[in-house]
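Whiteboard transcription, Tuesday session. T.W. wrote the C-alpha cells on the left side:
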C-alpha cells in the first residue's frame, strides 16, 4: 500500500500488520481522548485505580505513532512501534491516524475500535488552544481567525481533516457495527455513568453500579485535572491541558460566517450519512 505520510511506507506496513484480534484501538482527532483513555483503561482493568497511579497513561495506553523510544523487556531502548508490538494482548493503543492505515487488517480481525467524537466547532476551539501548548518552535502564535482560515479551511491541521476522518470511520462503522463504537464528548459530559456502561458493554465487560461510580469519581473533569498520571503533554501544565471541559465554548470564538461554513460542511458531508452532530 502506497501512502504519502510522514511515517513512510515501511511503518504503514507495520501498522497494518500489527492489528491483532485482541487489540483494542482508540482513534481520535483530539476530542477528550485522554478522558476516554482513562475510562477505557479502568473498564479493562476491573476498575483498579491503584494501577493507574503506578504509571503514566502514556505508558499504560501508548500513542502508536509517537516519535518516542521506550525501554523494552531487555532494558534496551526500542522504537515506539516495536514497544507496542511487544505488549501483551489485549493491548490498549491510542492513535490519531485515519482509517486507511488500518482498514485492510481490521476487516480480518475482531479488534475493537473506540472513536471519540465532538461537535466540530468546540473541537476546533479546543485544538486551537492545544496548539498553543507546544514548545518553541512548534507553538502556534496566530489568532483564532488565522487558525480557522489557514489551518482548518486549508486542511493543514497536521492529521486528517475532521470531515474526512469521521466520514471514513462512520462508513466503516455502518458496515461493521460490532467493531466500532463512536463515543460522543457531549454524552460523557451529559451522563458519564451511562457512557461508561456503553463503553463497557461494547468491550464485553460486565460492570456493577459500584464499579461505574468508582470510574466516574476517578474521571470527572476536576479529578482528571488533578491526576498527575494522565496528562499526556509533559510540556504543558495540567491546568492548561485540561482547559474548560465545556460544551458550547465555540460561541465565544466563531463569527457568523465561520459558523455557517461549518454548518454547510456538516450538512453536505455528515448529515447524508446519518451522522447527526450534537451541540449540547
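and on the right, the sequence the group agreed on:
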Amino acid at each position: 500500500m502506497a501512502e504519502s505520510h510522514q511515517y513512510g511506507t515501511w511503518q504503514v506496513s507495520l501498522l497494518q500488520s500489527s492489528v491483532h484480534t485482541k487489540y483494542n484501538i482508540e482513534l481520535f482527532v483530539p476530542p477528550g481522548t485522554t478522558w476516554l483513555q482513562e475510562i477505557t483503561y479502568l473498564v479493562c482493568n476491573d476498575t483498579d485505580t491503584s494501577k493507574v497511579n503506578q504509571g503514566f497513561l502514556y505508558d499504560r495506553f501508548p500513542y502508536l505513532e509517537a516519535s518516542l523510544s521506550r525501554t523494552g523487556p531487555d532494558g534496551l531502548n526500542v522504537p515506539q512501534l516495536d514497544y507496542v508490538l511487544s505488549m501483551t494482548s489485549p493491548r490498549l493503543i491510542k492513535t490519531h491516524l485515519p482509517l486507511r492505515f488500518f482498514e485492510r487488517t481490521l476487516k480480518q480481525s475482531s479488534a475493537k475500535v473506540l472513536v471519540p467524537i465532538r461537535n466540530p466547532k468546540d473541537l476546533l476551539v479546543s485544538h486551537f488552544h492545544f496548539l498553543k501548548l507546544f514548545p518553541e518552535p512548534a507553538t502556534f502564535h496566530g489568532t483564532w481567525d488565522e487558525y480557522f482560515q489557514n489551518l482548518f479551511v486549508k486542511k493543514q491541521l497536521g492529521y486528517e481533516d475532521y470531515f474526512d476522518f469521521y466520514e471514513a470511520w462512520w462508513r466503516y462503522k455502518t458496515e461493521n457495527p460490532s467493531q466500532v463504537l463512536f463515543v460522543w464528548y457531549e454524552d460523557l459530559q451529559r451522563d458519564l455513568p451511562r457512557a461508561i456502561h456503553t463503553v463497557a458493554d461494547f468491550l464485553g465487560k460486565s460492570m456493577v453500579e459500584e464499579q461505574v461510580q468508582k470510574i466516574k469519581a476517578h474521571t470527572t473533569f476536576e479529578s482528571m485535572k488533578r491526576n498527575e498520571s494522565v496528562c499526556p503533554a509533559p510540556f504543558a501544565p495540567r491546568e492548561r491541558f485540561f482547559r474548560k471541559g465545556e460544551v458550547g465554548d465555540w460561541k465565544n470564538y466563531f463569527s457568523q460566517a465561520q459558523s455557517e461554513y461549518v454548518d454547510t460542511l456538516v450538512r453536505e458531508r455528515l448529515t447524508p450519512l446519518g451522522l447527526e452532530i450534537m451541540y449540547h
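Someone added at the bottom: DSSP finds 15 helices and six strands in the chain.
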